[in-house]
Fold these 2 entries.
Entry 1:
Amino acid sequence: VAQWEPALNAIVGLIERRGATDAPSTGSLIAVKDSVAVAGFPRGTLGFLEGAMVDAQPRDAVVVERMLEDGMSVIARTSLPPKGSPGGMTPQTQNPRALDRVTGGSSGGSAAAVAAGLAHAAIGTDSGGSIRIPAACCGVVGLNPTVGAVPGTDINSFVYSIASTGPITSNVADARHLFRCIKGSHPSDPLTMGPRPSPRSHTEPYRVGILREVVETNLDPEVRQAWTRTIDALTAEGFITVDVSLPDMVHVSIEGPRVLGIAESTARIEDTFAAHPEMRVPDNIEQIYERARALPSTEVARTYALSQRFSADVNTMFGEVDVLVLPTLPGRVPAADDPFNEVDVIVGGVTEQRVRLLTRLVNPWNFSRVPAGTLPVARDSDGGPISMQVVGPWFSEDLVLDVMEKIETLSGGPWDTTPPPSD
């Protein structure tokens, strides 16, 4: 950290919380996103609430308790997007895989720290791609678990009904180990306390769903080629491909964040400022308030119904296939040009907003609340990572990780960590 962090800006502060000795994971060094409470240390909040939680935290988040009990040591807090930064970005943090590309957000500091080898693994949160986007940008592994699989107690997340906490690691085996450590119900988080569906039996050969909506969407040619190579490699190993369709996928990827995301995050933000009357509401938060207050209740209800219908369709689809395999990002990892502002990028010859490029293939799985993981499989012609995403039915994280591990092997992984230049 002393040697490379000045070039990276991934670490907010160092921590010394030593895990139990002679435990299964003794010696593992973990970084946590700065929205995760660590007793005795300050906690930031997602950028626009910067400063709301600056006091030393009175207790550990449940996931931190579980890591310490398992022997892991927490060594650092990782950066969050600052006030006013565009969606899907941690603009101040450098990408150790490609310094000219974005790190993604909002767990960009966690992904960059792992990619640079500053920690063995990191904790991120994901309510619209915030584990998978930075993991894909930084060429590392990320797992967004089923909503309710991991306790979110004492972790700031503003879209709380679809938010998950999960691992960011340099390889799939570590992601599996860290997930098994932090998962499980806890009475402090009601989302974890509901009934669990019985695990489905999966026998090889696995059935891999190929989504028509992704086949027909605009993709960068090199991303499409990497996807085709991945599917061909799995087919050569005996996997069976099945064409499937989710007609509402595009609609939910637009309306979910625009309506439910704004409504829920505004409610949480209002509660936070109510608890901190000494804080002035920034101008950009007032703009979010205005957008939320302008949403008709009927539109919120219709979007919630859309989310429920999409979730049911996803569940039905997983009666036909075991997993989906698709690109994590539809285009190359975007350049870090003008990172504090929203800009347009070119994907396959078509112009779209950078935030849309980063989110459109990842956030549908938040709204269906199913597990989704990402791992790097190739580099584009300019050296940036290209990653694939594996999506499975509710509480099928082990299955998702099994398929990710197979892809990792077939694509020549896992990737080594890459410290950035130290100047």
Entry 2:
Amino acid sequence: METIQGLAMPQICYFYGIVIMMYYDEHNPPHIHCTYGGYKATFEIQTTKRTTGNMPKTAEKLIKKWIAMSKNELLSVWDLAQKHISPLPTIAPLE
């Protein structure tokens, strides 16, 4: 579990060295936080758009593909995180 600005951020998925995390009680729009090596970025769940940070092109492509495939599950986990339900469920990785 990574901590950013003192807040716990549970890992909900890991694939190809990419870590996907989500804050509890986070601001809208629904989004995820991703790390890969020294890169960090956030992506909107509905649009798959990168909203902050940087990510290598290949990693970004994989993240966007995973978001598109997992959109319904991600939105369900988002709802749980908003309600402070712990632990958050994990979502299947890209294979």
